[in-house]
Amino acid sequence: MGELVINHIAIRSPDADMTRDFFMKTLDLVPGPRPNFPFPGYWLYKSDSDHSSYLNAVVHIVGIDPNDKEGLIQYLGDRELPTLYGTGAIDHVAFFATGLEKMLDHLSSLGIPCRERLVPTIGLHQLFLDDPNGIVIELNYPAHERTDLDLKIQQTAKA
Known about the structure:
Layout: E1 4-13, H1 16-27, E2 29-32, E3 41-46, E4 57-63, H2 70-76, E5 90-97, H3 100-110, E6 115-119, E7 124-130, E8 136-142, H4 143-158
Parallel strand pairs: 1-4, 5-8
Antiparallel strand pairs: 1-5, 2-3, 3-4, 6-7, 7-8
């Protein structure tokens, strides 16, 4: 099915600054670039890594703005604050992957729905799916795989 490598953990937090500070102090992580998502947060990197590459972020802190949750809800879905404690605060597990078309076909054959997103800033096409326990699994593919697949679909439709 192609390559599959763990990428990052994402933690939803009603106090993103406190969570950021914890990881900076305890694991020597440093804030770095983050795409312009419609919700607050931080991406943290190992201090000795290349911070110019979004792909090197190891912890994504998903901030919750109590006055404006709509961007977060539209992008990742809604979670009630009382459930965001302990392992319930871990929002998703992300993998780098290849083989988007095969995975979409595979998920379809299994009847597993997924949500697709494009992060244009960093050239990723994302699939989000839920495991049987409600844990969100994020699969990150090179964006060109979606573009190539769309072109293939268009050519097939014309034929």
